[in-house]
Amino acid sequence: MKTTEQKAKEIAKLMEDGKGKDVSLIDISGLNSWTDYFVIVTINSSIQWEGMLKDIKDYIKENDLEIHLTNKKSPDGDDWNLIDLGAIVVHLMTEQAREFYDLEKLCHAGKILSINE
Fold first, then answer.
1. SS3 for 34-79, per residue?
2. Could you list the pLDDT tens digit for every one of the 117 residues in the chain?
């Protein structure tokens, strides 16, 4: 059975394969009690977001995960989309939103993991 870390790495790699830019995987398990990993991805459009969401849904069906919540963090929904998989939270963000919210800096105490190990 795959560990949560392995699943997080596979999701991050899936986002990278889907042409997401600057994919980051951060282990934040020691910083909070509500999730273990952030996958942060820069996207270019709502069409790309839809494709990535489809890829995530296909992945979760095969890997014993479920979506707890999807949330759009802007009125038009194109700036920041959050997909909560419980122990893994995926953030699909435009370049502008990613610069503004700077989640990597917010999670500076977390451990950045390599996707390709």
1. CCCEEEEEECCCHHHHHHHHHHHHHHHHHCCCCCCEEEECCCCCCC
2. 899 999 999 999 999 998 999 999 999 998 888 999 999 999 998 888 889 989 999 999 999 888 887 776 655 556 888 999 999 999 999 999 999 999 888 777 889 899 886
